[in-house]
Write a structure and sequence with these properties.
This protein is α+β, with helices and mostly antiparallel strands and about 120 residues long. It has 2 domains: about 25 residues; about 90 residues, Immunoglobulin-like. Helix content is about 20%, strand content about 45%. The protein has a 5-stranded mixed beta sheet, with no helix packed on it. A 3-stranded antiparallel beta sheet has the order 1-3-6, with no helix packed on it. The radius of gyration is 21 Å and the shape is elongated.
Length: about 120
């Protein structure tokens, strides 16, 4: 019984100490996501550059769906708290497309959309 009481006290003390630490020490970050495009209007076959930034403790992945049945998935390590990168895509057909970007971690999913017009 004494060992359990000590283990419980240690766990409670560790949780209390963790709650007092700030983000710069623990690496804990709330989930955020942003997606930008180099242009929102382009010609068929013209490359568009998409930049994404995601923060959040233990990021699982970032997905960018271009709205034309094509997507890119960036897998993150569970210890990652920040992910940023650049993806390029060109469209084979004219039309209006909704590009959807998403980031996920254990707290949920954050997303952002951009409308792209291809002529």
């Amino acid at each position: 019984m004494r060992t359990r009481a000590n283990a419980g006290a240690l766990i409670a003390a560790a949780l209390a100490a963790t709650a007092c630490l700030d983000d710069s020490i623990t690496g804990t970050r709330p989930l955020t996501f942003s997606l930008t495009a180099s242009t929102q209007s382009a010609d068929v076959g013209q490359e568009i550059t998409f930049n994404y930034e995601a923060t959040g403790t233990a990021l699982h992945w970032v997905v960018v769906d271009y709205g034309d049945n094509m997507a890119d998935t960036v897998l993150a390590n569970s210890n990652v708290v920040e992910a940023a990168g650049t993806l390029t895509h060109s469209y084979a057909l004219a039309g209006d497309f909704v590009v959807s970007g998403k980031a996920e971690n254990f707290t949920g999913i954050e997303s952002e959309e951009i409308e792209i017009e291809i002529q």
